[in-house]
What we know:
Elements: E1 14-18, E2 26-32, E3 35-44, E4 58-65, H1 77-80, H2 85-99, H3 104-107, E5 111-120, H4 125-146, E6 159-167, E7 170-173, H5 177-180, E8 185-192, E9 197-204, H6 211-237
Parallel strand pairs: 4-5
Antiparallel strand pairs: 1-2, 2-3, 3-5, 6-7, 6-8, 8-9
Amino acid sequence: xxxxxxxxxxxxxxxxxxxxxxxxxxxxxxxxxxxxxxxxxxxxxxxxxxxxxxxxxxxxxxxxxxxxxxxxxxxxxxxxxxxxxxxxxxxxxxxxxxxxxxxxxxxxxxxxxxxxxxxxxxxxxxxxxxxxxxxxxxxxxxxxxxxxxxxxxxxxxxxxxxxxxxxxxxxxxxxxxxxxxxxxxxxxxxxxxxxxxxxxxxxxxxxxxxxxxxxxxxxxxxxxxxxxxxxxxxxxxx
Length: 238
């Protein structure tokens, strides 16, 4: 039995509320159980120097956790003068994941920055950030298309992510914090809505795993991402 009482293949309740900020070209609040992330997308008519002159667009991301997003207060990274290694790793993951679903030629030579701020954390913050980040990106691209600045839709497929792991010897979908902290195997799966893989992060946290277990986790992830992609499309078109 999972601590939450969920079935092995059951995700936490997911909601995606769009248009939650006034100024961003795209925004949403994604809630995956008790993990809540504010995602905003900002369009800029510039690109990084290594992209300038290529005619290609760029999508990047920044990620952060608020001081009381967890059970005890954490220090703001700005007060330390630098980002922690975990933060840098996660925001790079978000950026490259979102870029995998973008036709950068169709986007044109402009940059969209997706900011993901964790309001409350209960496991799976990077996965929620990627999933919500795509919705914010979708809304920002809609703004460009309505204005006629982009003719062909540069978003190929939804990009979503979900965690899976081996908990109490069983493959489970969408780990919350109690499961994540005790899982023998932990994995994050980033996919396009059509099931094609973008990135898989899997590691043995307390026990090794078999190929059969990895395949079982992949199947769970495909199910979860399929559900998330449908929610993303519904939220972005509402």
